[in-house]
């Protein structure tokens, strides 16, 4: 690949915005918009850095949880070990659809009075909480309004 890499470009643009442009901007609305742009760049930097590992962890967690509650996904270790981002996303998307279907089925069973389904649904809800925690890590320090 030809240098600079995308993460290098983002780092340099962000540094210029923070160190050169931001101190020179006096208008409060313009500073707020600049803060938003810097936050967006920071988010993209975090995604580039963390997304592959997060997708692997999320996919493993879905497979382990659904297998444990008796709803196998059919996804094997080879698919979970994929290295390229497009494959990781595809596997995770497929697993997420399986998870969504499992939630619908379990909620329906719980509504019908199935107590076993209620326990299994709790395991899925715990998984969703872990997923949200992983997503929060991806958000960075948040919106920098008018810094």
Summary keywords:
147 residues, mainly alpha, elongated
**Overall residue-averaged pLDDT value:** 90
Rg computed from alpha carbons, rounded to a whole number of angstroms:
21 Å
| Major sheet | none
Question: What string, H for helix and E for strand, traces the elements in order?
Answer: HHHHH
Number of domains: 1
How far do the termini sit from each other?
Answer: 36 Å
| Overall form | elongated
Please describe the topology of this protein:
Elements: H1 6-24, H2 28-68, H3 77-80, H4 85-111, H5 115-137
Helix pairs in contact: 1-2, 2-4, 2-5, 4-5
Task: Please give a quick description of this structure.
By secondary structure, the chain is an all-alpha fold. The protein contains five helices and no strands. The radius of gyration is 21 Å and the shape is elongated.
Commentary on this structure:
This protein has 147 residues and is mainly alpha-helical. The protein has one domain (6-137). The chain contains five helices and no strands.
């Amino acid at each position: 690949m030809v240098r600079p890499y995308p993460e290098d470009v983002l780092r340099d643009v962000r540094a210029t915005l923070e160190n050169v442009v931001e101190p020179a901007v006096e208008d409060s609305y313009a500073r707020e918009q600049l803060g938003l742009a810097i936050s967006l760049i920071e988010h993209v930097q975090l995604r580039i850095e963390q997304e592959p590992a997060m997708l692997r962890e999320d996919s493993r967690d879905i497979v382990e949880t659904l297998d444990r509650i008796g709803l196998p996904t059919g996804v094997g270790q080879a698919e979970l070990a994929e290295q390229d981002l497009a494959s990781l996303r595809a596997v995770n998307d497929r697993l997420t659809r399986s998870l969504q279907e499992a939630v619908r089925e379990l909620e329906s069973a719980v509504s019908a009075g199935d107590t076993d389904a209620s326990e299994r649904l709790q395991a899925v809800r715990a998984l969703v909480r872990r997923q949200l925690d992983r997503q929060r890590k991806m958000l960075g320090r948040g919106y920098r309004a008018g810094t």
